[in-house]
Design a protein that fits this description.
5-stranded parallel β-sheet; 5-methyltetrahydropteroyltriglutamate--homocysteine S-methyltransferase; 22 strands; alpha/beta; amino-acid biosynthesis; TIM Barrel; Cbl-indep_Met_Synth_N; methionine biosynthesis; 2 domains; binds glutamine; 26 helices; binds zinc ion; globular
Amino acid sequence: MALTHPFPTATVLGYPRIGRRRELKRAVESFWAGRTTADELESTALALRRDTARHLVSLGLDADGGAVPGSFSYYDQVLDAVALLGAVPDRFAGLTEAGPGGHGRLPLAAYFAVARGAGDAPPLEMTKWFDTNYHYLVPEIGPGTPIAFADDRVVREFTELARPDDGGAPVVTRPVLVGPVTFLLLSKAADGSPEGFRPLDRLDDVVDAYAGVLRALAAAGAPWVQLDEPALVTDLLGAGFDEVADAVRRAYARLATDLAPGRDRPAILVAAPYGDLRGGSGDGLALLAGTDVEAVAVDLVRGSAPTGAVPGLDSTTLVAGVIDGHNVWRADLGARLADLEGLTAAGAGAVTVGTSTSLLHVPHDVADEPRLDSALAGWLAFADQKVAEVVTLATGLTQGREAVADRLAESAAAVRSRAAAPGVVVPAVRERTAALTPEDAERAPYARRAAAQRERLDLPPLPTTTIGSFPQTAEIRAARAAWARGELSDADYTAAMRGQIAATVALQEELGLDVLVHGEPERNDMVQYFAEQLDGFATTVNGWVQSYGSRCVRPPILWGDVSRPAPLTVSWTAYAASLTSKPVKGMLTGPVTILAWSFVRDDLPLGETAEQVALALRDEVADLEASGIGVVQVDEPALRELLPLRTAAHAEYLDWSVRSFRLATAGADVATQVHTHLCYSEFGQVIGAIDGLDADVTSVEAARSRMEIVPQLADAGFGRGIGPGVYDIHSPRVPSVEEVTELVTLAAKAIDPRLVWVNPDCGLKTRGPAETRESLANLVTATRTVRATL
Ligand code: GLN
Ligand code: ZN
């Protein structure tokens, strides 16, 4: 097959799209608020896309040939695919207008309505994107869902940069789309689909529509297109390798073989980020090499490099993802260049350099972090630094090491400086983890704990509690921000937070809750709050990363051995306890969640880092106990999220993650009640682990799935306290007394009622004060009703 354009020697699989100063976030939110028009939003987005593309060229990517990824999105790349296909659920059909070929196209306002809901129509569900902290919208596909080439936005966006009308330099980008197989495997069957229907059944329709897009891109002059197929690196999407392989063969026979490259379509790069193409029950690399796509991008950070010749790869370009798109460390360029040189064994037609994943998951630029310690800054690579690394490696690969000798030397010096820096390895921390014994992760048998806790806490049946946070009002956020800016003194800040805590305690007493919380007003974020106080972490000022839509987070950077220089939460919790005779629950974030929502170090196994965090928390639990606290909750909402994409790796992960939780909590006295909170609804793969945590009480999200989890736990023999959420905190809706009564009754029937707790699904920080009061009042009333029937 004749290649009109060889694949660029250096590329990245995607680039942050929210803007260096979160320009897109602001533009989108002002459109939502009705302060700007769709035209204004589109012109802000165009300017951002132009600046970004030209900036990437200034960093060394080629301006033509498709080296610069066209990976922009107004909200989410999966929603973009929904829009491209016009695959809109019926409830939004009225919002579409006629697009090319008369198919239903979503104007911008409707596109956002599908993402965020409109009137009575709930939005698409949102869930985690592979093993990242990015959330995508889950398409709903049924047998009758419209699927066609309905929206040519991706073509327009290509043309706007390739033939700009602002007099600036043109950039020939490589449009990036979610691949057809991954799109359908990430979809769920639309409500009302017949039994046995699966979205993948619509593959031919999706592929036909993609064929239309590819034709249009070829006509517009795009040399390359990128189709992301990370479905090939995971076992968690409910399809086995053979089924995925069959779908890939069918899809790419139609797209790559039946369409003539250069005429009917651009050359195709299939990217397989986030994991190991060859780690499942079949070889995904050989599978792709056997299709007629011109290039395959592999993740060589998470995945393994082929050690021998791969059949069919001789006519394919291998885009070697040796720069980590998912973490923030500067690469050891000498070692990565050696990896690239070693790839010749695979027998690829050509080897070029790329990132392991899109750079969507890292902040823009280390130079935007004036407050970072300068040594630490020298070890980091954010998106722009990673582009430069890719360019350096490509130069080294094509022109020889001498051509980049200076940069290799700088990189080696950074690696050495990091390894030797104070704080990276702290002997006292290492000695403590080395001395751990299995007993350190064991508590006394549950029966003994339960008896001691009954005596100490004297709670009614079906005890009521909350998950920790209370509404974070504008007033609370303003006080925290003023304090951070130095405009509020420590004393005034403490007084303000204590005022909030006192009000929260008073409210809970008035409502009649049984186990109270302090409400977490002092916490900006449940991970950052801890990272700011622990040694071994740094936090950023501008290190924003898109979490979903316009929402961005600033993950802390875990760079060294972790320890706790001083108590973290004790003064706030003890203050709350001093205001009431009811038990107050101390609130900590667990080790796995702290790791999951941070950038973690890559020079120590995650399990060992987790032990260090666990021991810091263990000391905090001891200090809470010493101050008289008898109930401590350790939240692990991310336990499910870090679950490896390959089933073969699950046992090892669950082993260290469960152990780290137990290390954090097993120092507690028998009479101290340990709670945990897990918030997601897919428990299937972690049900054994939930039991393994050995918490006295476990609260879980359950309201939307109508307590489904409770019988599952009962079947698995779970015999400790369980608090299935009875109040869906994801919406402002107040649950009625009847509704809560019904859910509590369901739970108390499915499992021994003496084990059942009553609580909301999750923390209340995003809720308003009025709806919170009303909802909790209903929760208490309903509980009293059910109690009377026991
Ligand atoms: N304790 C936390 C809160 O209530 C738990 C949050 C979470 O599970 N995501 O906000
Ligand atoms: Zn939660």
